């Protein structure tokens, strides 16, 4: 489902520049939809970007007050919760003096173009991302801090939510941070009954393995964004929440009706580890898997 960013040959120039200087990579994931996120830290030095062939959204998670971008009209200084947008083919030079951490979202011009065409039914060839340096955006702040940074990027179930969050990020950028913002998305209802059944059957048959938002969207022949939106209309929750609920239900059934160890149950239900199963199970059921099994056996 995922590939390391360093293994990709295209659209990773900003990532490669950071890896070659003083920046420290803390976390990263690159999903099959071609969108990548990374969490970095740095403390000193200089970074120069010279016409990268992809877009980068940079968000300062912690610190950055003594991080500056050299500008002809005067240097600009960063800070916590500040947003920078570095469009394709831009040039910039950055200087660091104190420790800080930052989040990057990597995407290509084709992502903006297809998003404009699929979501807004508009010609996307001429859509152009604005260049922004150390601006405030409450929506981006909430999306990154309350959703994206709280997910386990290595977990296949959480990657469904990460993919959905990336779609929300692109929607916001197209609406708010392009030179000719697109305001109105297509009005759509929920999934048809046939597509609802197909998606439910696919999920039920695939709980033990990983699958992506794109895999689910392909069943209905919709874009990732439209599928996620229409799924929520139909089911009252996101695909991530629905799949996680199904995995918990299967775990409950296996705990009652089988003697399989927790490690096997976690694998059969699509959890990355026994620890992840226990964490999600206790959060949603109110008891650990072992306690739930004991209590259900007593009742039986």
From TrEMBL:
Limits of the HTH araC/xylS-type domain: 197-295
Keyword DNA-binding: yes
InterPro entries: AraC_XylS_family_regulators (IPR050204), Homeodomain-like_sf (IPR009057), HTH_AraC (IPR018060), HTH_AraC-typ_CS (IPR018062)
Keywords recorded for this protein, A-Z: DNA-binding, Transcription, Transcription regulation
SMART domains documented for this protein: HTH_ARAC (SM00342)
Pfam families: HTH_18
Descriptive protein name: AraC family transcriptional regulator
Source organism of this protein record: Enterovibrio qingdaonensis
């Amino acid at each position: 489902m995922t590939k390391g960013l360093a293994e990709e040959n295209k659209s990773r120039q900003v990532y490669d520049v950071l890896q070659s200087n003083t920046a420290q990579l803390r976390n990263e994931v690159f999903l099959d939809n071609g969108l990548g996120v990374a969490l970095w830290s740095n403390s000193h030095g200089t970074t120069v970007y010279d016409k990268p062939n992809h877009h980068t959204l940079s968000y300062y998670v912690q610190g950055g007050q003594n991080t500056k971008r050299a500008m002809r009209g005067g240097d600009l200084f960063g800070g916590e919760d500040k947003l920078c947008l570095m469009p394709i083919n831009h040039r910039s030079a950055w200087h660091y003096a104190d420790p800080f951490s930052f989040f990057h979202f990597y995407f290509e011009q084709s992502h903006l173009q297809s998003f404009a065409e699929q979501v807004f039914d508009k010609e996307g060839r001429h859509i152009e991302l604005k260049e922004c340096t150390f601006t405030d955006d409450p929506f981006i702040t909430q999306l990154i801090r309350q959703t994206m940074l709280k997910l386990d990027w290595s977990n296949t179930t959480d990657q469904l939510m990460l993919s959905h969050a990336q779609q929300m990020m692109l929607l916001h950028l197209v609406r708010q941070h392009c030179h000719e913002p697109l305001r109105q998305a297509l009005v759509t209802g929920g999934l048809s009954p046939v597509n609802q059944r197909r998606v439910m059957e696919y999920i039920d048959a695939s709980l033990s393995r990983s699958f992506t938002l794109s895999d689910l969207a392909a069943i209905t022949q919709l874009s990732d964004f439209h599928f996620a939106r229409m799924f929520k209309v139909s089911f009252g929750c996101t695909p991530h929440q629905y799949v996680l609920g199904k995995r918990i239900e299967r775990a409950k059934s296996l705990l009652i009706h089988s003697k399989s160890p927790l490690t096997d149950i976690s694998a059969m239900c699509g959890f990355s580890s026994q620890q992840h199963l226990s964490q999600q199970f206790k959060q949603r059921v109110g008891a650990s898997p072992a306690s739930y099994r004991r209590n259900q056996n007593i009742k039986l």
